[in-house]
Amino acid sequence: MIKCLVQPSRNSCDIMRFFYEKIIENLSHLQVNLIKAVAEDETMLSSTEVIRKYDLVTSGNIETLKKALANKEIINFSGSKPEFEDPLFKYWFKRLFYKYSIILM
Length: 105
Fold this sequence. Notes:
Layout: H1 2-6, H2 10-25, H3 29-39, H4 48-53, H5 59-71, E1 75-76, E2 83-84, H6 87-104
Antiparallel strand pairs: 1-2
Helix pairs in contact: 2-6, 3-5
């Protein structure tokens, strides 16, 4: 299990896939877009460039989205840089979900 957290693998993600998919299903498209921005290591989430790039609508919307993702314990925004609460979820999102959702859209 420790190896799974230190060095995630596709096999580890397969085990958690249905759980992670359920999380995504219960999010708005704007919440998913903010997760994409954080997964891509964006730190200036309220900047015009990030808002346009990830279709986050307005800078006023960002605080609401951040609060929702923090309350769902997906991303921690309390530090200087947003961090995923579950590193394996970040790996799954970035390597599997996000990669294939771009192709499907």
